[in-house]
## 1
Amino acid sequence: MKKMDCILCKFRESMNKRCIFACIMIFFVVMIAGCYSYTAKYKTDYKKPAPSNPVVTKQNDKKQEKSESHSFAKYPFEITMLDVGQGLCVLIRENDEYMVYDGGGGDSSRRVVSIVSGAKNIKSLRYMFASHYDQDHISGLIGLLNRVTVGMAIIPGYQEKTKTYFSFKRALEKARSVVYANSGQRYKLGNANIDILYATNGKEEKENDRSTVIKVSYGNFSCIITGDAEAETEAKLVKDSANLSCDLYIVGHHGSSTSSTPDFVAAMKPKLAFISVGKDNKFGHPSKKTLKTLENNSTKIYRSDTQGDIVLAYDGKEYSIITAKNEAPLVKSAADENLEQDYVLNTKRMKYHRKNCKNVVTISDKNRKLVHSSKKALENEGYSPCGYCQP
Ligand SMILES: [Zn+2]
Ligand SMILES: [Zn+2]
């Protein structure tokens, strides 16, 4: 009888028992690998966040409503306010280009450097903005200058006499270029625009008011960052700036009562506010007054002392927000109650959950229902909020 050639082995030898066994083994290995990769894919798709991502809290409004996919790397634009305790550090990404605005104080410098050059593996920053020369804003920048390539450092045009200032000036020698901030200047970070709305003239009474104020825009999304600017600079902005409206306000001077004047906040009408503030800080930041002003403008507040790192990612139409700690903001505005967003209902236990709540996966199909509704409407229907995800 004519012996067959084995197709899989591609050897010109004839099909024998050993060969058949090898073929069967290869077949099984391929099958198992296929199934495994399918399961792995299914799991990561279904069970966010991705390993490096912290807990998700999502805020819906017109620009949102993103399905649950939390690999923010896919988003072309991302703003991260790192938890640096009492200080400020904002990292902005447009595709694979990065910039920082402030670097936090000495206590968190190591954390900032390890996140930027370690966890995020960023080799170079296109821009580095220093708002002003207080140590809680520039100490971390010194660490970054020593570890990553800095394209252009944009610094405020005044001098200081502190030790931190001199170390910062020395470290700046490592930047490819150093320029003074000028109001009206625009820098491009990929498709994002960085506009300087205010730069010091060296005559402001308080050093905080010398902070460089920027507006970062990407598509229809925009964000204003004011460093530690206070009422004097804010008043000038209200008077001189054509367009202060923005989606996100990185709250000035850690939410101090000397910043975020009602006129300024009303001119911005931010939907979101991120406050960078140390837990139980000695300054009493953020002030009740500032929180109230934001609340009066129906601004949703996120704060680093209770929520850790806060990441906002924008895909050109919608944004999502992730916070490292899933604590609810301390201030809830009345608007929250009526805000319509996606919730998952457990129709048997009469509970409603955030879409990303870990309890959602435990609800059986027949009792699980996805709805787009407001807390108030759901509670009127007899539903109560899940104690874990605290929607
Ligand atoms: Zn500060
Ligand atoms: Zn300051």
Note: Residues 132, 134, 208, 228 surround zinc ion (ligand 2) (CB under 6 Å).
## 2
Amino acid sequence: MPKIRESIPAVEATKLLREDHAKIKALFSEFEKSENDVMRKKIAGKALVELEMHAQLEEELFYPAFRKQLGEESLIDEAEEEHHVVKLLARELAGMAPDHGRYEAKFTVMAEAVKRHIEEEESDVLPRFEQSGHDLEELGRRMMERKEQLMEQISGPEYLLEQGTGLKAKRPSGARKHGGRRTRGKRK
Ligand SMILES: [Fe+2]
Ligand SMILES: [Fe+2]
């Protein structure tokens, strides 16, 4: 495991994720209230960047840690598929002019999907992880460090246009080591 910089303050991973959620939801509210295309474009751009960074942090660090700790494969499979749907819409939006007749509709549909996803994470995924005994501060440090890198890498929504829309190839073959246990039915 790469060495983590000492200078990064201790923050619990789940607290960081909740803070991201609050920031993203605040941007959605701002978008709803914005009165012209210039404002909408600016706010949507910020929201798309925040979403991209947040999704990458979860997919690269939080979800793998959750799988390893809890083995709840189907829960995280669903979360990643939800990310995938949001990414498709986010990439379309990144390539669309804000005065396009469907821009607002598309953004609203994406925002609703994200809000539902956040609600599921906050009511189910994050509490389970918090109760699992995982070292939240160690993961928080790694997430902070990665976020710093992502902030340099993702400067604007144009970044999204250069990225693919597929789910990242992740789990190496044979990695379904928790016996492929399906734990459906625990979610509302
Ligand atoms: Fe997520
Ligand atoms: Fe999240």
Note: The radius of gyration is 17 Å.
